[in-house]
Amino acid sequence: MAEDLQQLRAEIDALDVEILNLINQRAARAQTIGRLKNGTVYRPEREAQVLRRIKERNPGPLTDETAARLFREIMSACLALEKPLSVAFLGPLGTFSQAAAQKHFGHAAAPTPCASIDEVFHDVASARADYGVVPVENSTEGAINRTLDLLQDTPLKICGEVALRIHQHLLRKVPGLDGVAVLYSHSQSLAQCHEWLNRNLAGVPRVPVASNAEAARMAAADPAALAVAGEAAAELYDLQRLAENIEDDPDNTTRFLVIGKHDATPSGHDKTSLLMSAHNRPGAVVELLQPLARHGVSMTKFESRPARSGLWEYVFFIDVEGHRDEPPVAAALTELQEKAAFLKILGAYPVGVL
């Protein structure tokens, strides 16, 4: 058995060297491509195509998700050789927004934590950050209204999306629940764990704060405090997990948007996001939806928000399947331009996956 182990370890060592050489060959070719390209370094459609191909051709025993995650990090490191990307997100460090940014851009990107979603938009618009990652909706609690409101006015484009499974943990600096006086978390997380908290911590005051990571930081400084936050925040602030996965919905997922100064070209599996308003007349909203049905374009999201232009006026946020440059979507958009009181294409981008 000892000889067998030694032989297997020697084979693994040889494979490690081969893998290292192949990764460096890939990195060298990525550098060459970077020198040949003009303008934008990061191409979301290209990365989406690579990751889809990796999943399709993965023979195992690694899962498709694990294989894709490994190649995401390889691409992230190769991209950093061309130009390290700075990515803004709702901070501080340890938030789910940071986890979404790392899932999409990998760990080689430079993290830029921001105090608010507004600051994420501002940092990207002012070129303090190359891209931003902002939450837009949660499967349990619905739309993130501040993100929708900011999309109305920004010149930025949506160039990607990230779907992140959200697991909430009950955290504390010390073990047990003796002497607990307060519980901190973001308002969305408190809502996502509402029933669990009612059953298990009904008498503990809940205080909403700016982010889950901020809640963890406060709990780390106060032994009488609890926090509801994710794994990254627990590790960052060295907190104990008193209970894990306390979200009421086990499929609790948040969708994040990647914002930048460009959108993406077609990748083969895309989505287009629109913002539009209807004329103030009977049947106007129905008229807006008819071009989509006529051209066979499937709508995956329809959300209304108050417009900034007047009292009791509304705009509609719509996601459709397909890229804006694909003929059915392009034809529907041409008709919508004529029928809508206002139409803005927020971006076309590869569909995000869990």
From TrEMBL:
<comment type="pathway">
    <text>Amino-acid biosynthesis; L-phenylalanine biosynthesis; phenylpyruvate from prephenate: step 1/1.</text>
</comment>
<comment type="pathway">
    <text>Metabolic intermediate biosynthesis; prephenate biosynthesis; prephenate from chorismate: step 1/1.</text>
</comment>
<dbReference type="InterPro" id="IPR018528">
    <property type="entry name" value="Preph_deHydtase_CS"/>
</dbReference>
<keyword id="KW-0511">Multifunctional enzyme</keyword>
<dbReference type="InterPro" id="IPR002701">
    <property type="entry name" value="CM_II_prokaryot"/>
</dbReference>
<dbReference type="InterPro" id="IPR045865">
    <property type="entry name" value="ACT-like_dom_sf"/>
</dbReference>
<dbReference type="GO" id="GO:0005737">
    <property type="term" value="C:cytoplasm"/>
</dbReference>
<dbReference type="InterPro" id="IPR008242">
    <property type="entry name" value="Chor_mutase/pphenate_deHydtase"/>
</dbReference>
<dbReference type="InterPro" id="IPR002912">
    <property type="entry name" value="ACT_dom"/>
</dbReference>
<keyword id="KW-0584">Phenylalanine biosynthesis</keyword>
<feature type="site" description="Essential for prephenate dehydratase activity">
    <location>
        <position position="254"/>
    </location>
</feature>
<dbReference type="GO" id="GO:0009094">
    <property type="term" value="P:L-phenylalanine biosynthetic process"/>
</dbReference>
<dbReference type="InterPro" id="IPR010957">
    <property type="entry name" value="G/b/e-P-prot_chorismate_mutase"/>
</dbReference>
<dbReference type="GO" id="GO:0004106">
    <property type="term" value="F:chorismate mutase activity"/>
</dbReference>
<dbReference type="InterPro" id="IPR001086">
    <property type="entry name" value="Preph_deHydtase"/>
</dbReference>
<dbReference type="GO" id="GO:0046417">
    <property type="term" value="P:chorismate metabolic process"/>
</dbReference>
<protein>
    <recommendedName>
        <fullName>Bifunctional chorismate mutase/prephenate dehydratase</fullName>
        <ecNumber>4.2.1.51</ecNumber>
        <ecNumber>5.4.99.5</ecNumber>
    </recommendedName>
</protein>
<dbReference type="Pfam" id="PF00800">
    <property type="entry name" value="PDT"/>
</dbReference>
<dbReference type="GO" id="GO:0004664">
    <property type="term" value="F:prephenate dehydratase activity"/>
</dbReference>
<keyword id="KW-0963">Cytoplasm</keyword>
<feature type="domain" description="Chorismate mutase">
    <location>
        <begin position="1"/>
        <end position="86"/>
    </location>
</feature>
<dbReference type="Pfam" id="PF01817">
    <property type="entry name" value="CM_2"/>
</dbReference>
<dbReference type="Pfam" id="PF01842">
    <property type="entry name" value="ACT"/>
</dbReference>
<keyword id="KW-0413">Isomerase</keyword>
<keyword id="KW-0028">Amino-acid biosynthesis</keyword>
<keyword id="KW-0057">Aromatic amino acid biosynthesis</keyword>
<dbReference type="InterPro" id="IPR036979">
    <property type="entry name" value="CM_dom_sf"/>
</dbReference>
<comment type="function">
    <text>Catalyzes the Claisen rearrangement of chorismate to prephenate and the decarboxylation/dehydration of prephenate to phenylpyruvate.</text>
</comment>
<feature type="domain" description="Prephenate dehydratase">
    <location>
        <begin position="86"/>
        <end position="261"/>
    </location>
</feature>
<feature type="domain" description="ACT">
    <location>
        <begin position="273"/>
        <end position="350"/>
    </location>
</feature>
<keyword id="KW-0456">Lyase</keyword>
<dbReference type="InterPro" id="IPR036263">
    <property type="entry name" value="Chorismate_II_sf"/>
</dbReference>
